[in-house]
User: Fold this.
Amino acid sequence: MGIEEVAIRAQEQERERIALELHDGVAQTLTSALRYLQTLEAMAPQELAESRRTVGRTRYLVRHALQEVREVIYSLHPAALSRLGLVATLRQELGRLREETGWQVDFAAEEMPFSKEEELALYRIIHEAMTNARKHSQTRHLWVALRREGGLIIGEVRDWGKGFVRSGVTTGRGLDTMRRRAEILKGQLFIECQPGRGTYIRVEMPEERMGCERGAY
Assistant:
């Protein structure tokens, strides 16, 4: 096992640890606070309109913070991946993205078996590309695909946003991590981008590495 693979595995273990701590700590505290606020709002006399509005605004902020914490927990350790598999997990995330942004989101994927390492690497790469598109691209259209072709497993993410100017081999730590994840599994990452014309990210992994039973997380 190479140094980079050891580092990636250690990173995943740390992600899981942090996710569990957030779930059992901050998320539970916010949930309890939200319940108290809901009770307080219901008990506040009708004539204290300003107090009720203040409690209502606070309740909204706590609910929003709880949702953000849950999203962080999911991104750190996607429990759905072990339960549903890669394709179903991506479909679920893309459906949520469509609802939250109003984007046109297209998804084409073949069901296929993966080992635990391969499934997690593909998920992290595709998820990072989706996150980058949401944060930076200013697109209204996202296309994601997962397929077999010519002895390869291919994952693709394309947006039609503002693109970016590349400097060096990659731009940003996220893209560098994506590339390392692909290379650990003897794969490659390709990035095509042009300002004003969007970004295309493609990961290729040799099919002969696939076919293992999907492991538990």
User: Anything to note?
Assistant: Residues 210-217 have pLDDT under 50 and may be disordered. The helical segments are 3-43, 49-76, 79-84, 86-101, 116-137, 173-184. The first helix runs from residue 3 to 43. The chain has two domains: 3-76, 79-209.
